[in-house]
Amino acid sequence: MAWQLDPAHTQVGFTARHMGLSKVRGRFTNFDGTIDLDPANPTSARGRVAIDLASIETGNADRDAHLRSPDFFDVDNHPKMVFDVKSLAPAGDDHYKVVGDLTIKGTTNQIELDLEYTGEGTDPYGNRKVGGSLSGTINRSDWGLTWNVALETGGWLVSDKIKIEIEGQLAEAVKTERSAA
Questions:
Q1: What's the rounded Cα separation, in Å, for the pair 89 and 175?
Q2: How far apart are the C-alpha atoms of 75 and 98, rounded to whole Å?
Q3: Rounded to an integer, what distance in angstroms lies between the CA atom of residue 115 and that of residue 113?
Q4: Distance between CA atoms of 143 and 27, rounded to whole angstroms?
Q5: Which of 38, 87, 95, 181 matches a 20 to 30 Å C-alpha distance to 136?
Q6: d(Cα 53, Cα 68) in Å, to the nearest integer?
Q7: Where in the chain are the domains?
Q8: What confidence tens digit (pLDDT) does each residue in 83-113 have?
């Protein structure tokens, strides 16, 4: 059955290190996705999530503009980041390994994320929901995101390792009946 990302109850975020000293957190505010999922058999899940890269927010307008520029995401030429879910495998009680293809700036690489499945429920309006947390770490350079500045003391301004953190819900897609014309 088809499920849609519930944007009101989902956060797509990331964390990078600045100068190796502190974590800078960011998020994307515009995304959509459809997952074909049978909650009784989560390992059968397949789907696609598309993230609007222009919706990036880090709490600093200058940094956000730089991340949208050709130095990083180049949103004028590559407006979306896409994750295609290929497989889920059990990894303990309510935990799964999610394997999929992540495409950024026209480059696709397979990644593995950890999923903590938090369950299924029905909201007060009768809508079925499932929830969970996805996390993992990627090297941004694998997608050609290599802009950086060497520090005089050694190291780099921006870490290559980026932690992905997604907390969210899926809502069961509602089937609509077509009336005879």
A1: 29
A2: 27
A3: 6
A4: 18
A5: 38
A6: 7
A7: 2-172
A8: 999 999 999 999 999 999 999 999 999 999 9
